[in-house]
Write a structure and sequence with these properties.
The mean pLDDT is about 95. This protein has 18 helices and 15 strands. The chain is of the alpha/beta class. The strands form four sheets. The protein has a six-stranded parallel β-sheet, sandwiched between helices. A four-stranded antiparallel β-sheet has the order 5-4-6-8, covered by helices on one side. The protein starts with 6 loop residues before the first strand and ends in a 38-residue tail after the last helix. The chain has a domain of about 170 residues: Isoleucyl-tRNA Synthetase, Domain 1 (Orthogonal Bundle). Helix 17 packs antiparallel against helix 18. Bound molecules: 5'-O-[(L-methionyl)-sulphamoyl]adenosine. 5'-O-[(L-methionyl)-sulphamoyl]adenosine binds next to strand 1, helix 1, helix 7 and strand 12.
Length: about 525
């Protein structure tokens, strides 16, 4: 396969620093990580970016409450995010922080450039202001006409602010979206953006504030800090060195192949971001995929409802791959999905413990019992081999077709079908009867075929369940772990001895309610 031109740049949103990450936050990142790993496996030169969105009034206030500077506050809390991603085996290429100096410089240059070319101008921001909370609100955000945070009266005030000429780019944006059907996915989100936000008309966007200071200062007007979206969205290019001395990564990886975002921020990524890029005369990302939300008991996962645990507790209890598997397999990508520990356990038991774990363990036990753990290929075929081989060798293509459409649960399920087919193959070939009848050549071949299928299945699983894949391949003791081998049956080394082994997933039996 040609390596040339095969680059892939995938991003998650940058997260607000939080000490209270929940399983919903892990969803985007686990998916992006699996896609990045999958593309790497295919031979792409991949860049996977995640990070944190650290400016704004909320952070400024929290820091004040804690008696520390905003920088100290975010420095401390960011360790939490990094620790969470580590626990879930998230293999990002870069973690950007919007407080990093290179990001700050790039944002300042972008702001100045847009101002110099007339795309940013000074105007007046009018809004409803809550003085004790120091927050601006829109009419619709108010609750019974009062501040949604503290319930007090708000007053109409105006402040000097800079605006980005979003309206100027409306026609070009519509034209672009219409001529690039893959740009916003799934299609339902594209229709929503077009009908609800773009067609009614885009208004110029307020991009600076004077009412708080924890933000990136506007270089030519120091009262102002850059407000939210220019700061946050620019991370996707500042991380690659855009407008910096060394922009080689930018040249190589931009435009992004995929921005994965939650449904509530699709709007910013499909309207503000493309217009900013057009103003900067840069190509637009190839795709923005807006995924659904993970919900609990029909509602939002929320700290105040107390309906969630720290994801690291789940990881400790069930293992990183069990959590990854649930997030990747259970929720149709694009739709909302439910998270519950019962569902997690049920998926774990059915797919991981029974279908994969038990298959591997009983095959290795039989091999140990009958042939001292030596894998041997013979010519004594059974009537069931052809069907097994056909399914196993077609799976990489099937999974790849699903991955191209980002149908991740379907891709995973097609890989699982290898393991399900092997279990059926054991029922069909009844190795214990072959052993009893002394049909050693057939028995060796049956065990070889199962282990060869497991080898191929394990390689295909590696982007999704990296630890599991590694452990399966270690137990089989094969060196044939390359993706290119997954459509050819029979490459598992003849005559090798398996390594020490133990069950990779123990069935979970829970009697107590959590
Ligand atoms: N900082 C902004 C993004 C700026 S990107 C230029 C932000 N941060 S966030 O921390 O609030 O959210 C980060 C991601 O987590 C979003 O994609 C959001 O949709 C996702 N999720 C937060 N709760 C979620 C669920 N319950 N389920 C699935 N994803 C969820 O927005």
């Amino acid at each position: 396969m040609e390596k040339e031109n095969k680059k892939y740049y995938v991003t998650t949103p940058i997260y607000y620093p939080s000490a209270n990450f929940h399983i919903g936050h892990c969803y985007t990142t686990v998916i992006a990580d699996s896609i990045a790993r999958y593309k790497k496996l295919l031979g792409y030169d991949v860049y996977f970016l995640t990070g944190s969105d650290e400016h704004g009034l909320k952070i400024q206030k929290k820091a004040l409450e804690n008696g520390v500077t905003p920088q100290e506050y975010v420095d401390e809390i960011i360790l939490n995010a990094k620790d969470l991603w580590k626990s879930l085996n998230i293999n990002y290429d870069k973690f950007i922080r919007t407080t990093d100096s290179y990001h700050i410089e790039t944002v300042q240059k972008i702001f100045k450039k847009l101002y110099d070319q007339g795309d940013i101008y000074k105007g007046e921001y009018k809004g409803l202001y809550c003085t004790p909370c120091e927050s601006f609100w829109t009419e619709t955000q108010l609750i019974d006409g009062k501040c949604p945070d503290c319930g007090r009266d708000v007053s109409e005030v105006s402040e000097e602010a800079y605006f980005f000429r979003l309206s100027k780019y409306q026609d070009r944006l519509v034209e672009y979206i219409n001529s690039h059907p893959d740009f916003i996915q799934p299609v339902s989100r594209k229709n929503e953006m077009m009908n609800n936000f773009i067609k009614p008309g885009l208004e110029d966007l307020c991009v600076s504030r004077t009412s708080f200071s924890w933000g990136i200062p506007v270089t030519f007007d120091s009262k102002h800090v850059v407000y939210v979206w220019i700061d946050a969205l620019s991370n996707y290019i500042s991380a690659l060195g855009y407008l910096s001395e060394d922009d080689s990564l930018f040249k190589k990886f931009w435009p992004a192949d995929l921005h994965i975002v939650g449904k509530e921020i699709v709007r910013f990524h499909t309207i503000i971001w493309p217009c900013l890029l057009m103003a900067l005369d840069l190509p637009l990302p190839k795709q923005i995929f807006g995924h659904g939300w993970l919900i609990i008991n029909g509602g939002k996962i929320s700290k105040s409802l107390g309906n969630y645990r720290d994801p690291r507790e789940y990881v400790k209890e069930y293992g990183a791959d069990a959590i990854r598997y649930y997030l990747l397999r259970e929720v149709p990508f694009g739709s909302d999905g439910v998270f519950s520990e019962e569902l997690l356990i049920s998926r774990y038991n059915t797919d991981l413990a029974n279908t994969i774990g038990n298959l591997l363990n009983r095959t290795l036990s039989m091999l140990t019992k009958y042939f001292n753990g030596v894998i041997e290929k013979t010519d004594a075929n059974t009537d069931f081999d052809a069907d097994l081989i056909e399914l196993v060798t077609c799976t990489n293509k099937k999974a790849n077709d699903y991955m191209d459409k980002l149908e991740i649960p379907e891709a995973l399920d097609s890989i699982l079908s290898i393991f399900r087919r092997c279990n059926k193959y054991i029922d069909e070939t009844t190795p214990w009867i072959l052993a009893k009848e002394g049909k050693n050549a057939e028995l060796k071949n049956v065990l070889y075929n199962i282990l060869e299928s497991i080898r191929i299945g394990a390689i295909l699983l590696s982007p999704f369940l990296p630890d599991t894949s590694k452990e399966i391949l270690r137990q089989i003791n094969t060196k044939e772990t390359n993706y290119q081998t997954t459509n050819t049956f029979g490459l598992l080394e003849n005559g090798i001895s398996i390594a020490d082994y133990k069950p990779i997933f123990m069935r979970i039996v829970k009697t107590d309610e959590k």
